[in-house]
Amino acid sequence: MNGKSCIFLLCICALCLLSCSCGPAEPARSALVVASWNVQCMFDDLTEGTEYSDFQNSALWDHSAYRNRVRNLASAITALDPRPDLLVLQEVENDRVLYDLCSLLASKGYLWYGTTAGAGRAIQTGFIARVPVERDDVAVIGVEGQRPVLRIRLVFGGADVVVLGFHAKSRSDGPEETEPDRLATSAALICAAAEASALYPGAVVLLAGDFNTDINCSAALLQKAPGLCPALAYAGWDDAVLAGCAGSLVVTGGPPAAGCWYSFWEDEGTQKEAPGSYVYRGEWYCFDRILCGGEAFDRQGPEYDGGGVYTGSGLTDGQGLPVAYVPRLRSGLSDHLPVWVRLTSFVEL
Predict the structure, then answer these.
(1) Which of 26, 103, 111, 272 lies 20 to 30 Å from 220, alpha-carbon distance?
(2) What is the pTM of this model?
(3) Which residues contact 152 (CB under 8 A, 6 or more apart)?
(4) How far apart are CA 123 and CA 93, in angstroms?
């Protein structure tokens, strides 16, 4: 493990928390909702030279545009149903963005936030939370040549839940050419999940982020290049076990066997509000995922209790497509839709 993590408690609430330290304990939660959202190039209003070109152009991006976008994001997060207790965010520039976002969301309980703070990278992976997150329970795991993984430990119902937030390499330089990069991220997530399970025995482990690929993309790649190992593989494929040994994340739509991960996108019994989380040239893709390890289905402690993709509340247009942010119009939210899963404590009937 390497790198460093940044985690903060919103300063405006620190005194309030200290003054209430002898008061009643936080009420027990009946459910824990974890969500993930690629918020599409959420830069702050300071130009440091690493930003994408549109966000170095004062005619397109300035303090007013920034503040308006932060307000719109805060409004969208407030309207999410079910409301996330932990929201993993991709494509935020730094912790200042999250501080400003939490400043608007403090009344909703979002007091904790953190980022990967990867040196030299224009965009980071971060999180905001309305459940307590201790500094020692956040770590950044370096992935050679790729964006780092953010590990967050939560406690729900007296049990550990570990969320691994990530953002895999985009396909913009070519799907085949960039698949080894995404495979490197998948392999790193497998190792990070194993380490988390060793650190927190029995913990439910969730992988939350933007894979920039899905099962259909993997199938198409294997048709073009049969020898290529995909970042994601489906448990029903003949070579799924071999792919898993080579670093692929093997997903299924039912309770996962050892070495596999549950995905609601592959679960035929789950109703999806949209056919995917991202649209490119009129085609939907299931890039954004929260994969659940087998501990979420072992009939003890926190258990998987539903998941899906958020739509509406300004996230989609009249055709049901994501409302991407357009700098020249200074409007929109993101070209991705957020996804969520819910955990509840298992009760024997």
Answers:
(1) 272
(2) 0.92
(3) 86, 88, 114, 127, 129, 133, 137, 138, 162, 163, 164, 165
(4) 4
Is the Cβ–Cβ distance between 232 and 251 less than 8 Å?
yes
Q: Which residues make Cβ contacts (< 8 Å) with residue 237, sequence separation at least 6?
A: 243
Nearest to 81 by CA among 319, 292, 306, 301: 306
Predicted pLDDT at 152: 98
Over range 259-264, report the average pLDDT. 97
- The stretch 268-292 carries a mean pLDDT of 96
Alpha carbons 176 and 222: distance in angstroms, whole number: 10
Grouping H, G, I as helix, E, B as strand and the rest as coil, residue 83 is coil
Query: Would you state the pLDDT for residue 117?
Result: 79
For residue 199, how far is the Cα from the chain centroid? 21
**DSSP annotation of 265:** G
Q: How do residues 100-119 score in pLDDT, each as one tens digit?
A: 999 999 999 999 999 997 66
* pLDDT value of residue 77: 98
Here the CATH number for the domain that contains residue 229 is: 3.60.10.10
Q: For residue 312, how many C-alpha atoms fall within 13 Å in the half-sphere facing its CB?
A: 6
Answer whether residue 307 shows pLDDT above 50: yes
Per residue in 158-186, pLDDT (tens digit) is: 999 999 999 999 999 999 999 999 999 99
Whole-number Å distance between alpha carbons of 329 and 319 = 19
263-276 confidence digits (pLDDT tens): 999 999 999 999 99
Q: Count of CB atoms within 10 A of residue 128's CB?
A: 25
* Tokens, residue 257: 């066997």
The half-sphere exposure of 201 on its side-chain side, counting CA atoms within 13 A, is 0
Residue 191 in domain: yes
Domain that holds residue 58: 31-341
* Total tally of structural domains belonging to the chain: 1
Tell me phi and psi for residue 142, to 5 degrees: -70, 145
Strand partners, 308: 340
Tokens of 172: 């913009």
pLDDT reported for residue 118: 65
51 found inside a domain:
yes
Q: Is residue 18 included in any domain, yes or no?
A: no
Q: How far apart are CA 130 and CA 50, in angstroms?
A: 30
**What are the residues facing 140 on neighbouring strands?**
150
d(CA 18, CA 15) in angstroms, rounded, equals 5
